Amino acid sequence: MARVLSVNIERFPIAGTFTISRGSKTQAEVVTVTIRDGDHIGRGECVPYTRYGETIEGVAHAIAGMRADIESGLGRHALIEALPAGAARNAIDCALWDLEAKTSGRPVWTGLSDTPPRALETAYTLSLAAPEAMAAQAHENAMRPVLKVKIGVGDEDVERIRAVVQAAPDSRLILDANEGWTEDNIRQNLAVAAECGIALVEQPLPAGKDGILRHIPHPVPICADESVHEARNLNELVGLYDAVNIKLDKAGGLTAAILLRDRAREMGFSIMVGCMVGTSLAMAPAVLLAQGADFVDLDGPLLLSQDRVPGLGYHGSLVSPPQAELWG
């Protein structure tokens, strides 16, 4: 039988409100791709991101525009040439990986590694808020080994950092400014981060305006997020960043993300594997990508009040590899 591609827009409520330097959201809006080939079905999920000019409707339209090619048998590597990096390519690519696994009877991981994947320790994200509110979030989650702390608005980041460190003294902390720091405050903020034992600072300055990072000390390792999408971006980051945050929605799928991860390792960058706020279907391929990563931030489903069923297994901050019923 011929392949049949379908695309759906779905919404999942977030538990409370998720806030970063660019704004707040109360639901995760995702686009899901299903590719059926006879009795076998492959699925993939993406999260369109307005920061990169994406909309739910635009991404769904781009996916639908690939229907004829996918149904005619277009493969993952040809897909990289047919669509630019981004959410639309991610959903299709992950659905093709899943379909290959279902059709062959071989889990995706067997094509990526000689050893089965293991459970990973993921960071848990604290939404941006006033220092006292962030301290309360940190205290509530102080038992988690890794916390990712959203900052980057106004002049209270030093107070936010100190408040979270005091409230969760035993947690390893990642700061994520989401491009919210400036040339005027970055040195002070980095110095305070170092003083407080922060493990990593993520994307402190706007992408394209981060050249200053080449000329200032890095008392804490600095990780590129918005500044890196594909492997071809890496040469531009040498001397600016110490680590890269790889997200499937930025890279445009697992196929491209593997190329980015492997090239980044060759160039000496530390690896973080991160996510947008999505369901377990979006996290599943990222769990396989994150095997051996230095930092893992795949807590999307933990931020939702409702996830897919079946979903990934989360036990505290440990996330288990996906079962075939979910993906891969």
SSE diagram, text form:
Elements lengths: L2 E18 L2 E15 L2 E7 L9 H9 L2 H5 L4 H7 L4 H18 L15 E2 L2 E3 L4 H10 L5 E5 L6 H11 L4 E5 L9 H10 L4 E3 L19 E3 L18 E4 L1 H4 L2 H13 L3 E4 L6 H10 L5 E2 L17 E2 L2 E2 L9
Parallel strand pairs: 5-6, 6-7, 7-8, 8-9, 9-10, 10-11, 11-12
Antiparallel strand pairs: 1-2, 2-3, 4-14, 13-14
Helix pairs in contact: 1-4, 5-6, 6-7
Keywords: Isomerase, Magnesium, Membrane, Metal-binding, Transmembrane, Transmembrane helix
InterPro entries: DgoD-like, Dipeptide_epimerase, Enolase-like_C_sf, Enolase-like_N, Enolase_C-like, Mandelate_racemase_C, Mandelate_racemase_N_dom
Organism: Borborobacter arsenicus
Instruction: Report the average pLDDT across residues.
Output: 96
CATH architecture of the largest domain: Alpha-Beta Barrel
- Proportion of helical residues: 25-40%
Distance between the first and last residues' Cα: 21 Å
Dominant shape: globular
Q: Record the strand order, biggest sheet.
A: 5-6-7-8-9-10-11-12
- Domain tally: 2
Mind telling me the CATH superfamily name of the largest domain? Answer: Enolase-like C-terminal domain
The CATH class designation of the largest domain is Alpha Beta
User: Would you give the CATH topology of the largest domain?
Assistant: TIM Barrel
Domain Mandelate racemase/muconate lactonizing enzyme C-terminal: 131-223
Keywords: Isomerase, Magnesium, Membrane, Metal-binding, Transmembrane, Transmembrane helix
Family: Belongs to the mandelate racemase/muconate lactonizing enzyme family.
Binding site for Mg(2+): 176, 202, 225
